[in-house]
Amino acid sequence: MTDPDSLNVLLSPYGVVSRVETAHELDSPERLSFAVAGIGSGMPGRATSSYGRIQKGGLAVVNHVFSGGRAWDSPAMARFVAIAEGAERYAGFDILGEERIWATADELGGDCLDPARYPRCSPAEYGAADCPMRPFDPAARIRWSRGLDLVTGRETWVPSVMACPGLRDAVPAEGFTFRMSTGMAVHTDPVEAVVQGVCEVVERDAAALAWLQRLPLPRIAAGDRSEAAQAAIDWCAARSVEVHLFDASTDLGVPVAYCVLADRRDRRACHAVGAGTGRTLAAAADKALFEAIGMRAELRRAKGPVPDSPADFRAMEDGARYMGAADRAPAFAFLLDQAGTGAGRPALAEAPPDALPAAPGLALRRLVSGLAAAGMRAVVVDRTPDELAGAGLTAVNVIVPDLQPLSLHPRAQFKGHPRLYEAPARMGYRVLAQEELNPWPQPFA
């Protein structure tokens, strides 16, 4: 059993986590506790920090000054999760002083993660004046960091901008990837940290595929829900909030859930979404549902006007605020209004995916073998600062470039990545052409 106080050593005004507060959201079940933690800067004399902002369009790329935690029936565990999430974000800052080299991909050849695998935008996206991304240039000198290829077991060079979400002083040639904390994970067990990192990359891939390809996901049956999920669903039903839980598991066989909350009466929080992975589909559904409930509460209490258009986005949460407004309700019809359409994915909808093994080593073996069977490569980068090591934690960043990134920038959805078109076909869905992809911004924050 995890000791909820075991991470208190990371707390101080100038520590890894500068502060943590536990509270109950008024717009959430009483049994669901929330906590918010402020993250230290990693810089002497500075109490807080944030990652940089995008150089075009004004949207914040990575702006994680705070982290959050939630737990059912345990305020102490919500606080613990918030501190752990804060430690994860802290590990993403550019503070390790790790070995890096300046080189081109052409110079490194087979010693680097294959650039042909990197996610890429479509020509139309790159051609837009407000697109923040640029194509990867194998002849441009960029920074590279060491990583471990989980499939081959060999060391390999990874672009530092992919290995370190908070990389400082990025040069223009490093602007080919959307920087988020996807793949970052911390845990007392190093193997479990890698498991969690892989699962998060898979989760974001599934969410991106579902939204961009407008996949008519199958619903999660009542028998695949936990007691906590059912209690939360009952709480929502008593307030006329519809709960829609979907099985978003992909061809990789990892349990992934996607949740949409719908409140037709609320103009600001008409729709809120969440996604999650877990050892089982029920555990994934818990995470997705609780995340959606937290997002709905956030949308309801948000101050200031909702952005008028994607061109007005300035922060990571603006997509969720924009898509949460009642005027954008038709954008969710492909998920919520499937009755009578005959749509679905016959190849995978018969049963939920098999549970991942509880043992971290066995779970990782299955994850890596699944990626390898799909022709994918996963690289793990150790990002453990001394402060986390002293608390018994390992921090990692897992990079799976073959998977579809979940980008929150509306003008950089990586619509040129092969995964976006190959995965739906393998899962038994119809495949939308590039010009038919979902035009609406991602509803996540």
Short description:
The protein is built from twelve helices and twelve strands. It has helices spanning 75-91, 105-108, 123-127, 160-163, 190-212, 227-237, 281-301, 318-324, 333-336, 360-373, 386-390, 419-426; strands at residues 17-23, 32-39, 66-72, 100-103, 142-149, 155-159, 184-187, 242-247, 256-262, 271-277, 379-382, 394-399.
Q: Which regions have little confidence, pLDDT < 50, spanning 5+ residues? A: 49-64
Specify the helix fraction band.
25-40%
Structural class: alpha+beta
Estimated radius of gyration: 21 Å
Average per-residue pLDDT, rounded, comes to 91
Q: Tell me the number of helical segments per DSSP (H or I, 4 or more residues long).
A: 12
* Total beta strands: 12
Organism: Nonomuraea angiospora
Domain YcaO: 69-445
Pfam families: YcaO (PF02624)
Protein name: Ribosomal protein S12 methylthiotransferase accessory factor
Give the topology, please.
Elements: E1 17-23, E2 32-39, E3 66-72, H1 75-91, E4 100-103, H2 105-108, H3 123-127, E5 142-149, E6 155-159, H4 160-163, E7 184-187, H5 190-212, H6 227-237, E8 242-247, E9 256-262, E10 271-277, H7 281-301, H8 318-324, H9 333-336, H10 360-373, E11 379-382, H11 386-390, E12 394-399, H12 419-426
Antiparallel strand pairs: 1-2, 2-3, 4-5, 5-6, 5-11, 7-12, 8-9, 9-10, 11-12
